[in-house]
Amino acid sequence: MSNAQSQHGGLQLTLSIWHPDCWTLEVTDKTAAGLLAHGVYNTQNGSVKGLFTAYADSISDVEALIDATRDSSLTDSVLELRERHGATGTGSSPGNTTRELFVEYDPDNTISDSLLSRGFIHNDPVRVRHGREHWPVFFPDSRDEAESLLDEIREEQSADIEVTRITSAGGGNPKQLRRMDRLSDSQREAFELARQEDYYAWPRGISTRELASKLGVSKTTLLEHLRKAEAKLLDPDQ
């Protein structure tokens, strides 16, 4: 590791990943719900059990995901721990409805060991939506080394891996990044597009109507997504 890299303390990356034979990708691609993956525990029979939060904007969407998880040939068992719905806009839930699940499955069908063995350290819940896993990871070396190792994983796992965010480990605001995880998919999409299109610049780079058109929603819906996203990101008590 170079002296310059040591001073920066490594990298924070967000990886968008697809890989074959993964039940989380299968069920989130089939349904309108998403998953947050919190942790994985080994079992005595060689499988693993993962703790997940299933989330969506409606109870029916979450139940559809749970049913798809139970029906998947890639899962061994599903245990529903509790139900929590009706979350408010200032809470930490990424959707209006959530359920906590323990899911048992084959560890050979995950990509976590391939990442960890090459120094990519998972440091926040993995968000799974629309058939993609979004991994926040820390990497202790350079960008070139990270890309080289990601190429190895792509070939080894027949995986599609995109780096969607990369910063020096000391350059971000960890509390702000954690708040981003509290946004629903629609709030996150609206907020990130607004930033990308300089909606928050002065003068604005795009009008509210134009931004809503790019997002494919009404102006009223866009403003509601942004209002809720801003409340979650700016609330000092969150």
From TrEMBL:
Q: SUPFAM superfamilies attached here?
A: Sigma3 and sigma4 domains of RNA polymerase sigma factors
Tell me the protein's name. Helix-turn-helix domain-containing protein
Where the record annotates domain HTH bat-type, the positions are 183-234
Q: What is the lineage of its organism?
A: Archaea, Methanobacteriati, Methanobacteriota, Stenosarchaea group, Halobacteria
Q: Keywords, A to Z?
A: Transcription, Transcription regulation
**What InterPro entries is this protein classified in?**
HTH_bacterioopsin, RNA_pol_sigma_r3/r4-like, WH-like_DNA-bd_sf
